[in-house]
Design goal:
Length: about 200
């Protein structure tokens, strides 16, 4: 099986949040922190989040595929059925995305930090703030750039072209949607770009 590598760049356009999922809420603390690398304590984007969002958009918004049971998407992204006897090796491998060098240095120096947004939950019957409805969300601020890799595994030239077409359509849909949580409240607008990484010719 052949492989092709792509560099994927994600620029944050509006406050971005992917939660850590195991937040310890304390009085006066943050209700939902962004996920961070346990070694550097810097925010990152899990590859699974990017892959899942792109697949979801292809299932729900593309005219070329037929929902979550689409054979083509199941073949290339991996079947959602645990008992699928026809399952083939996943063609797309999404690596985690980390801050690019410029923003990594800015975070480390303190020139830029995550932001904290306090939200209010409204009591629909009273039209006022619900008791205990205040929550503080940690977000990655706009302009921050993350970088990572997507590997595409293919059998032949025709399959490579089809996989490339699927990936580019998914990214186009993502650029018109959002990544992470709370997209309906303005979070997670992103600008995603893809660049093929040229492989060195070992026979040269």
């Amino acid at each position: 099986m052949n492989k092709k590598k792509y560099k994927v760049t994600v620029k944050i356009l509006t406050g971005f949040h992917i939660g850590a999922g195991n937040d310890k809420i304390q009085i006066g603390g943050v209700d939902s922190a962004v996920i961070k690398d346990p070694v550097t304590n810097l925010p990152y984007i899990p590859g699974s989040s990017l892959k899942g969002k792109i697949r979801c958009l292809l299932e729900t918004e593309s005219n070329n595929y037929k929902g979550e049971n689409d054979e083509t998407l199941n073949k290339y992204f991996g079947s959602k059925k645990t008992d699928d006897k026809n399952q083939t090796p996943t063609r797309f491998i999404f690596r985690d995305l980390f801050l690019n060098k410029t923003f990594e240095e800015k975070f480390k120096s303190g020139a830029i930090n995550t932001e904290f947004k306090t939200e209010i939950v409204i009591d629909r019957n009273k039209g006022t703030a619900k008791s205990g409805g205040l929550r503080t969300i940690e977000r990655v601020p706009p302009s921050v750039v993350f970088e990572g890799e997507i590997l595409v595994r293919y059998m032949n030239g025709d399959e490579e072209k089809e996989l490339q077409k699927i990936l580019k359509e998914g990214i186009k849909l993502l650029n018109n949607d959002y990544l992470g949580g709370s997209g309906s409240r303005g979070y997670g607008a992103v600008e995603v770009s893809l660049e093929e990484v040229k492989q060195e010719n070992k026979n040269a």
